[in-house]
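User: Teach me something about this protein's shape.
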Amino acid sequence: MIKLSNFPVIIAVLALCGCASPPAKPDYTQFRSEGPRSIVVVPVINKSVDVNAPDYFLATIAHPLAERGYYVFPVNMVKSVMADDGLSDANLVHSGDPRRLGELFGSDAIMYISIERWNAKYIVLSTSVTVELTYTLKSGHTGQELWKNHQTIVYTPQGNSNGLAGLIADAVAAAITKASPNYIPLANQANAQAINLKGTGLPAGPYDGMFGKDAAAF
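Assistant: First, the predicted structure itself:
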């Protein structure tokens, strides 16, 4: 039984829970003020142990940005031009002045992306595959931050552990997943959530039919 003397404590706890506020909505004031039309995606910082992660990821990012209504400079062309200009080191590029890149490409905004995690972790009879990304959009004219987002996508295949044969099958499947994980679907999902989610994603760009009509959502 619950003692009456405990009611004030319970009520206080419930009151605190009810007062919990949702995450703060991003400030789109600077974004709306500048109204970027074009985006350059620069080389990605890779904090994972997979040396191929940046190249795999770059193949996933241009399409969702273009679908959102922005002109996106071809990522391979950007990478080549920056290498010729001595800007192949992603860490140096991310710490540099966005206005230099804006002048180099004639772009309104620069997209910086950091791969925080891109790995597969073996746990007993399953493998957990994780993609964690940080997105930052800065102005190519003023250098100011226009938008930022963070996404973590985790995939753990569901096993069918029915007896010894099922356990063996799960172990084999987990080993295969760990040996050759498919990160691309997770990267695509992270991009979709970061770019398209109302309230935290990117407002519709000038080449999208919703351009200027979605202000209430952002």
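Now, about its shape. The chain has eight helices and six strands. The mean pLDDT is 83. If you'd like, I can walk through any region in more detail.
User: That's plenty for now, thanks!
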